[in-house]
Structures are given as structure tokens and as C-alpha cells.
Amino acid sequence: MFSLLVNIPANAKWSPNGVTIAGGNKAGCATNQLDWPYGLSVDDDQTVVIADCWNHRIMQWKNGDTTNGQVVAGGNGVGRGLNQFNQPLDVLFDKKTDSLIICDWGNQRIVRWSRRSGTTQGNILFENINCYGVAMDEQGYIYASDHGTNEVRRYQLDQKNGVLVAGGCSTGNGLNQLNYPTYLFVDRQQNVYVSDNHNNRVMKWKKGATEGIVVAGGHGKGCALTQLDGPQGLFVDTLGTVYVADEGNNRVVRWTQGATQGTIIAGGNYYGAGANQFNHPIGLSFDQHGNLYVTDWGNHRVQRFSIEKDC
Predict the structure, then answer these.
(1) Total-model pTM
(2) Mind telling me which InterPro entries this protein's record contains (predicted)?
């Protein structure tokens, strides 16, 4: 995701009940529906874009309009055409070019799609990447996780192969290894945070480092506060606090810097369709006010959890 700078107080709390701001009308392809949504991104005006995976499209929901979204990329069936996607898994805003950067997983490519009115197709930026998550730093470099090679690479437009910034030392659980990396976050110092899914941990790779640091989980698969179960969506605030969608535990967990365990800030009430529940949370983001947004994959919806006003 884009490295949006969000100031969240260390003692912040969120409403335990989420509000559905997109989808939630069972799986489907109407403009008020989603079908297995994955990554999402939130703009300054609280506009949300969502990788609507099984509809092979990117959906946009504007703040205040929770009834119907708008197809802003794809939506022309599954395929390899420039106007098509094959199971997109992540999307972010590129404000400098007023476009969307999209991880087109099934086509093994990263695509740029202009947000200007009348755009009917995208442009391929990079190919032959088993991309799951994408991120962008303030310099405009694009980062992509590749779960096929278990690495993260940094790309610029004239550099098709990219530069290795995390993993790449075969599959494993060493500090220089990843095992099925999914979502990413890049901070202002170009430190890369990775949800190391099959190792049930979040790793931080400092710029230029040859190995990472475990910043969340890393104690095996489980539901204790020291553990994660298939981490997915990822966000880091200006204090360096890590927020992660703990998919298998149906919760969102916060890990402060140096913490030995996390705290649950949303969900954690078994799986279900209640306002305080998830059914496999995957995508995660915040708006500039500190409100939390989560793609609730199995419930085909996006939930917003409002930050408490006294924070």
C-alpha cells in the first residue's frame, strides 16, 4: 500500500462494531456487491478502492455513499486484455500521476490505470511477477511481493527486473528468508514491512539490510497474543506501530515497537457476520483521521471502525 502518514495516538481505541461501507449484500457482481475482496486503499477524502478479486475489477466507494460503488478498472470479465484482470489482489493510489497501481495476480503483472474520466484500459508496468501485494514509497518506487520466489523487489519504470529488498534466499523461516509473502508497507525511510504469511510473522527489512527483524508474531501459528495465523493486510503509523489483519484468527492486532505481544483492536470474536466479527479479514488500511478499514473477505464487505473521539 501507499505509505500514507497517519498519526495515531499510542492509547487509541476503536469502536468495537464496524460499519459496512462497501458490499455486504452477499457475493455478486452488482455495483452494491463484492465477490471475495482482497486489498484496499483509502485516499485523503476517504474514497476507498478495493481489489474485487472474483469480479476481476477494482471498485471505488466514495465517502458517504455506502449503497453503490463504481467500477473504476476492469470489470470486463476475466482475461489478459489491457481492459481486463485475472483475480486482482491489491490496489493503491498513485497521487502524482492520478492513477491506480494494481496487482493483477492471475496475469502475473502490475498495471497502472489512470483515474481520469474515459479511461478504458491500463498500462502494463511489470510482468512475470507472482505479485500479491504492492506498495509505493514517497520517491515513487513500486514494491511488490512475489510469493513464487519468496521475495520483495523494488521497481522503477525503466528497471524491469527490480532490486531485491527482502527475502530471496529460498523458502524458509530464517531472518533472511520469507515463506509466502503477502501484503507490504514501506515507511518514509524506505524500510519494508512484510506479512510473512506461512511463517506467521511480520518482518521489517531496513533499507539495504540482508536480513529482517521480526516485529509481530514469529512464535508459530496460534491464537495467543504472541502469535499470528496467516497475517495479511499491513499498516504502520508514524510511531512505528504495526497493525496487521490476522486472518486465521479473525482479528486485527496492533504491535507497538519492541512489544512481545499484540493487542486486539477489532474482531477476535470468532468468525461470523456480526458487526464485531470477521470471516477472514484480509485487506487493511487507515484514513488520515485514524479510522480503520478492513476487507472482510468471507462476508464480501468492507468494514470501517471509527477511532474513538477522545484519543
Answers:
(1) 0.97
(2) 6-blade_b-propeller_TolB-like, NHL_repeat, TRIM-NHL_E3_ligases
Locate the domains of the chain by residue range: 31-241
What is each CA distance from 187 to 31, 49, 108, 241, in whole angstroms?
A: 34, 21, 25, 11
Instruction: Say if residue 3's pLDDT is above 70.
Output: no
Beta-sheet pairing, 88-94 with 70-74: unpaired
Judge residue 53's burial from the number of C-beta atoms within 10 Å of its C-beta, 0-12 exposed, 13-18 middle, 19 or more buried.
Answer: buried
Specify whether the CB–CB gap between 237 and 255 falls below 8 A. no
Name the nearest CA neighbour of 201 among 187, 186, 181, 176.
181
pLDDT digits (tens, 9 = 90+) for 56-100: 999 999 998 878 999 999 999 999 999 999 999 999 999 999 999
3-state secondary structure of 287: coil
Query: Which whole number is the average pLDDT over 197-226?
Result: 98
Name the DSSP class of 110: E
284/282 Cα distance (integer angstroms): 7
- The residues with which 22 forms a beta bridge, in sequence order, are 302
**Distance between CA atoms of residues 292 and 162, nearest Å:** 32
Please say whether the beta carbons of 202 and 171 come within 8 A.
no
Find all residues with CB under 8 Å of 234, minimum gap 6, and list them: 1, 133, 183, 184, 185, 193, 194, 195, 202, 242, 243, 244, 245, 284
Q: How much is the average pLDDT of 37-62?
A: 98
The C-alpha atoms of residue 171 and residue 12 are separated, in whole angstroms, by 37
Q: Which CATH superfamily is domain 31-241 in?
A: TolB, C-terminal domain (2.120.10.30)
